[in-house]
Amino acid sequence: MEGDAHAADRAAIRELIENWAVWRDAGDWERFAGVWHADGRMMATWWQGHHRDFIRVSQEGFARGVRILHFLGGSSIELREQRAIAQTKMTITQRVTVHEVLCDVVCTGRFYDFLERRDGRWGLVLRQPIYELDRLAAVSGGPGPQLDSQLLERFPDGYRHLAYVQTLIGYEVKPDMPGLTGPEVQALYARGAGWLAGGDC
Fold this sequence. Notes:
Layout: H1 2-26, H2 29-33, E1 36-43, E2 48-50, H3 51-63, E3 68-80, E4 83-98, E5 101-118, E6 121-138, H4 149-152, H5 160-168, H6 183-196
Parallel strand pairs: 1-6
Antiparallel strand pairs: 1-2, 3-4, 4-5, 5-6
């Protein structure tokens, strides 16, 4: 029976994670709001804070034509009573004109999610992406744009090109997000362990 309960919890969490990607990218903001708990927070390269504000700024960007799309891979979910940590492989793709060349920037990483079951419902308390590897290519397959090396080198390897294009379109990008290795991701893992043990995220 315990195994069945855990399977149901994992299925519910995975459904929540998939709904996040589908509803956000489709601009289905009302349903997107339902994947969060009331205190849920989002950490992204270009914005960090309460999920309601994240929805608002995402709507504003969507209306301006900003397209930041997500594709999901496998998940690993750790459960402890009413709490969970989920890691889900993902890619972030953004299409944008960079120095007069239409480009796609693609970043591969993981969503690292702090989740809790409250009143029988799983919801997101904190989403912290881990940025592992990215690239920038011209959509046409032709030569890419000439990039400003000083701007590019301001950001970590894992999301350097993503940060570059987001800076060009006016976002202030956080320069110390967790990557594949390093103290930032180790600190995140420690916070995840603490969350499962009953601590704050």
